[in-house]
Amino acid sequence: MSDGPDPSDIIAGFVRLLTVSPDGEDCFTGAPQPGGVGRVFGGQVIAQALGAAQASAPEGMAAHSLHAYFLRGGTEGLDTRYEVARDLDGRSFANRRVVARQEGAPILTLTASFQRAEEGLEHQESGMPDVPPPEDLQPDFEHRRDLVERMGDRMTEAQRALFLRPRPIEMRTVGTLHWMNRDPSPPCAQSWFRTAGPLPDDYALHRAVIAYASDYTLLGTAALPHGLSWFRGELTGASLDHAVWFHREARADEWLLYATDSPWTAAGRGFNRGQVFTRQGQLVASVAQEGMIRRRARKSTPEV
Fold first, then answer.
1. Among 20, 112, 144, 172, fewest CB within 10 Å belongs to which?
2. Cβ pair 215, 41 in contact under 8 A
3. Quick one: which of 81, 93, 49 has its CA closest to 207?
4. Cα separation, 180 vs 190, whole angstroms
5. What is the DSSP letter of 8?
6. Residue 47: in which H helix or E strand, if any?
7. What element of type H or E holds 148?
8. Numbers of helices and strands, H then E, in the chain
9. Rounded to whole angstroms, how far apart are CA atoms 290 and 178?
């Protein structure tokens, strides 16, 4: 970790960000990220919408899946209102629909399903990729800091601030960071992640953090076979839909491996999949996402 704010302060702010506040019957408000600029990170809206759904779910039920559609980009600096519809309250399962709005316009719809804990058949076919442990990898923050030093005056103050700002989730990428991609490579990527400090013992919060982190690196996997870089301004993209299936409880303040692949890209869209594993190889969650991804006509950032 780098010098800077106390990790406990960063995590306290992150928990506040993901915790929605009641705002009327089955309505909740999600606060904006302090100091955020531009478009709201999609994982933030998903995590807050999941929190709103969970807050209205029957006691004792936990989310096992969510399906979301991004309708329009959210704006940083604005509150987001979450309106919940209670579609089902059964003995074993419950279902909630959520509409996220900013200034009255819907920016995301999300459906979440909840289940009461029970015993059942068990098997796991997917194995965790054979990758180096996080202790053997350079933190992504150090990659960003090195890039800022190499770029010097070719980066604006705003770009430097964005790259160096403290982040609540620490990541360690296997191989080249996808947004720095130069050469065509297979459409597969792996990153370890965990929160920058301990989280409370609330598995609903840990699921929200995993949902938040599941929007990292995913769409970029579709760009790897094409040797194109987000940083060099060669691509533009946005998430269209996003689904997460939660298979087992896991702590998001302990290292988890996020393995992604992209089996198909065409027609201005990229389809991407992800799997989240514990260090012991247990499958925690599965993810699927389709996003808009297009080549930009010209580069907007200098070469590095």
1. 144
2. yes
3. 49
4. 15
5. H
6. helix 42-55
7. helix 140-151
8. 5, 12
9. 17
Domains contained in the chain, CATH given: 1-116 (3.10.129.10), 168-304 (3.10.129.10)
pLDDT tens by residue, 68-94:
999 999 999 999 999 999 999 999 999
Question: What pTM did the predictor assign?
Answer: 0.94
- Nearest CA to 192 among 144, 135, 247, 244? 135
Say if CB 270 and CB 228 are below 8 A apart. no
5 CB-near residues (< 8 Å, 6+ apart):
166
The token pair that represents 69 in the structure block: 């559609």
In angstroms, the Cα distances linking 300 to 67, 198, 227, 303 are 34, 38, 16, 10
Q: List Cα–Cα distances, 143 to 146, 148, 152, 171, 294, in angstroms.
A: 5, 9, 14, 11, 26
Distance CA 4, CA 12 (A): 15
Cβ within 8 Å of residue 170, ≥6 positions away: 1, 139, 140, 141, 193, 194, 195, 196
**Closest to 213 measured CA to CA, from 67, 69, 14:** 14
Q: What percent of the chain has pLDDT over 70?
A: 95
